[in-house]
Design goal:
The protein is α/β, with parallel strands linked by helices and 200 residues long. The chain contains eight helices and five strands.
Amino acid sequence: MANTLVLVRHGESEWNRLNLFTGWKDVTLTEKGIEEAKAGARELKDAGFRFDIAFTSALSRAQDTLDLILDVLGTPNVPIFRDQALNERDYGDLTGLNKDDARKRWGAEQVHVWRRSYDVPPPGGESLKDTAARTLPYYKAKILPEVLAGKSVLVAAHGNSLRSIIMEIEGLCGEEIVRRELETGKPIIYELDDKGRPVG
């Protein structure tokens, strides 16, 4: 398991369930979200994973997902680092709005541009490019060095902060990464070489 990086998007949150733009709003996991995190953890346990260090965001849905995974693995004492650099993208004026209501207000095409373009932010919020601008320096300074030191590293975070990291690892462009869907609670496993590129 050396030089291993596992990324997990948090389980379903209350605002995911209600189809609301969440962003930096701190909301809890649903019962389904808790089960998704546990299911992902069981996959890792069955594959023999143990982690040396873990990272998560400043938001409780990601922190709770991480705690659930470590609990299922029977390794609750893994060192955990929490930082808002790994937070979900900030949806600005869209935060708290139902996605269908937002489409009625601004039009389906405009909302699609805000959600799925790489560099067009919603009003008062962040684009994926903006999210990457805070996520990737943290990844390169704090997370990647642990992987390159031969450790097995777990990151529990959010759809867009994880997309930023995946874009870096896989060498994708902005247009490619915005099409990548990340399932809630489902581990994404990388083995990295000494340059941080995936070998498995």
